[in-house]
Design a protein that fits this description.
The structure is a homodimer.
Chain A: E1 6-10, E2 18-22, H1 26-32, E3 38-43, H2 47-57, E4 61-67, H3 76-88, E5 96-101, H4 103-115, E6 121-126, H5 129-135, E7 140-145, E8 148-155, E9 160-163, H6 173-190, H7 192-206, H8 210-230, H9 237-240, H10 246-256, H11 263-280, H12 288-296, H13 308-315, E10 328-333, E11 336-340, H14 345-351
Helix pairs in contact in A: 1-2, 4-5, 5-6, 5-8, 6-7, 6-8, 6-11, 7-8, 10-11, 10-13, 11-12
Chain lengths: ~350, ~350
């Protein structure tokens, strides 16, 4: 049995503050926004849920746009198609865009909402575990360029986020593991209690126990909401800690080709490298074995031969670099981070042995 | 002789507040931002000014992008090219984008800055009178869709705006008139003193007197800064008053093909229609003749036969419509507006006789 509705407030200090509702009635929440018109962007994987929302909206839904989720859809061409359809359907400034699906769908839908008519309201209904624990909180919206992921985007917070843990039952094993990798990340950088929980419950989570997943999602969302509230625009090192595992993770995604490796899987691998860097520098000493064990308990596909040179080159184009230097989030222990920008190529190459 | 430097503060209530500097040293201002890297988007029409800034920046300028100003460049394709070049040049989150040129160049450059890496700093150096009096203040950035102008965009305020009235001497007569049309608009909706000034000085302004132009620009910027400070996100009717003449203006631009009619010219024509609507409704009675005379003293090209049906159809896709209704800004008198959304087709058709 799934626990009742849980609400986590994302406090932004002004009227843009919003709630993440876990286990509530998404259809009622969308209708509750009371807009005259809606545009719905949805993932074919959850067409049934989308259909329920579209039916409930009736005439007020002036545009629907179904996509096959995946990094492919976060392109300029798809964004343009979506903008053109919105204009054609005469979506106006008071309309609400509803994005239903995995993180790529909420990223795309959020970006379209952020940029159409200089920003319209939107709400996110993440339907993958990864999107629920990671992409849905923080207001980051984005599309990709040839040069890298998420290079184009805007911070545009949704009016609310609704998560139904029951939908995770439809995920395949890899998608579930990819989501749990981001939960492990959040635990490592910001939540020792979640870390303990994951050490105990990861097997049940991997078996898709809805109660366990609801608890994990709620803790991840609360941790992320706390961090985003402190650093909304990702301008200080507070929010940067959420990039643990992402420097090499993004480079792996970029090098292996988007779609080959799921984002969470890439992050799981990136965390191995970041932990290896932490160890080399004598950080994380006491907790290193536990952290390593938890990271490695998330299943990832066999990469075969990784082109280490290509991955190293790809880290250099990471969006998160600051003043031209590539940054890594390292761990001093569970929940304690250290940000460095002086990792040289030899040190990175050595740490990348952790991938195998 | 041009009067010395004038500064107008755009007060946004937080750290994003910024100055518009009229007649100051733009090169020094750009350097004063002290970024490690800069990207420069410039208008070929002012290549000399761009060259001075690029030279002064030296190695810190990692990317330059020259464009022929005009609505054509506000396309998704050009935005994508610009994003890709920025990524290729490894423009990072701490970089500053400098946009030098007419309003289409600052709109495009501002949009790229607003959306690249979820928003980087930018500064605007408007070099046409239209951009100086209108596009440079307010933080509106945008590109166009097939369905209409400025349908995609973000509010993203620059770090500063620098205007050198001396560059207006390079403008052709039509561009100067187009800029003065927006100044007339600002006077009509928000500044009776500027209205008096324009009644007296429009001939000298049309003859490109730099002192007169500097005074007009400073007053327009101050009026717009006041309005934007009250309604940054264009969510109340405060900022909406700046759209006087724009409902039909945008429709005319859209119908005649962008480039045929300059934006300011279209607004001048749109103001005639909006004033005709005001008269029909018994508004603007006392001031109507003066307003009409001032609007008509701005030269506009002969439109030939206007396809009235097409223009009326195009007004229906205006971005400014609210709750699905097309809105018009009418005048009750000089500096006093009235916003209506109940103009029917017959009334609009009748008012459009003012175009001829």
């Amino acid at each position: 049995m799934i626990a009742g509705e849980q609400r986590v407030r994302v406090e932004l200090g002004d009227a843009r503050s919003y709630d993440v509702v876990i286990g509530g009635d998404a259809v009622a929440a969308v209708q509750g926004l009371g807009a005259r018109t809606y545009a719905v962007v949805f993932d074919y994987a959850v067409a049934e849920l989308a259909e329920r929302i579209i039916t409930a909206l009736g005439d007020r839904c002036v545009m629907t746009y179904g996509v096959e989720s995946g990094e492919d859809i976060k392109s300029v061409a798809i964004a343009q198609e979506l903008w053109d359809l919105m204009a054609e359907a005469r979506v106006d400034r008071d309309a609400v865009l509803v994005a239903i699906g995995g993180g790529t769908v909420t990223d795309l839908g959020g970006f379209a909402a952020a940029t159409y008519a200089r920003g319209i309201k939107w709400c996110a209904i993440p339907t993958t575990l990864l999107a629920a624990v990671d992409a849905a909180v923080g207001g980051k919206t984005a599309i990709n360029l040839y040069a890298g992921k998420n290079l184009v985007g805007v911070i545009h917070h949704p009016a609310f986020v609704a998560i139904d843990p029951a939908v995770f039952a439809t995920l395949d094993e890899r998608d579930l593991a990819a989501g749990l990798a981001e939960a492990v990340k959040t635990a490592c950088v910001a939540d020792p209690e979640l870390f303990d929980e994951l050490e105990r419950e990861l097997p049940r989570a991997l078996a898709c126990d809805p109660d366990v997943l609801a608890t994990i999602v709620a803790r991840c969302v609360a941790a992320k909401a706390r961090i985003v509230g402190l650093d909304e625009h990702d301008r200080t090192d507070v929010r940067a800690v959420l990039n643990f595992g992402h420097t090499v993770g993004h480079a792996l995604e970029n090098t292996c080709g988007y779609g080959e490796l799921r984002h969470g899987e890439a992050v799981a691998l990136g965390m191995r490298v970041a932990l290896a860097l932490s160890r080399t520098r004598g950080l994380a000493a006491g907790d290193a074995a536990r952290i390593d064990a938890l990271i490695r308990s998330v299943p990832v596909p066999d990469l075969g031969d990784v082109d280490v040179d290509a991955v190293i080159a790809a880290t250099a184009s990471d969006k998160k670099r600051k003043e031209g230097r590539v940054r890594f989030i390292l761990l001093r222990g569970i929940g304690v981070t250290s940000i460095v920008d002086d990792v040289d190529e030899a040190e990175l190459r050595e740490a990348m042995r952790a991938l195998t």
